[in-house]
Amino acid sequence: MLGEDETVRRVLRCRNVHPNPETRYLVDRAQLFEAFKASKDFDRELAAIYHSHPRSPAYPSATDRAEAYWPEAAYVLVSLRAEPPEMFAYRITDGDATDIPIVES
Fold first, then answer.
1. Which of 12, 21, 39, 94 makes the best surface tag, with the fewest CB within 10 Å?
2. Above 60 in pLDDT, residue 105?
3. How far apart are the C-alpha atoms of 15 and 43, rounded to whole Å?
């Protein structure tokens, strides 16, 4: 998710290329690079990273917290275990997850 400050302006969707996509995610780096390169919003910064949890709550797992390499970005998690899906955002710093509000405008 690209934007400025904490406002998302563009969502770039990328494939999950992890061998176990039901429980882990790994963004296709070549696709991510191409998405940034082709984006008309190339000057925007990384505002958030999102992924789904097919069977678990929309809360950062231990793996999510350990692999949160961009502390300046929000982490948006969508749980697909219920209908409608649940969506929450977090700031992850040094392995600690703090809720942050999602505001639509």
1. 94
2. yes
3. 22
* Residue 73 DSSP code: S
With respect to residue 14, please indicate whether it lies within any of the assigned structural domains.
yes
CB 75 within 8 A of CB 35: no
59 falls within a domain: yes
- Is the CB of residue 77 less than 8 Å from the CB of residue 60? yes
Residue 93 within a domain: yes
What strand order describes the sheet that includes 45-46?
A: 7-10, 2-4, 45-46
- pLDDT tens by residue, 21-78: 888 888 888 887 877 676 665 567 888 999 999 889 999 999 999 999 888 889 999 9
In 3D, which of 85, 101, 84, 94 has the Cα closest to residue 48?
Answer: 101
Describe the strand order of the beta sheet including 48-53 as a list of residue ranges.
Answer: 48-53, 74-79, 86-93, 96-100
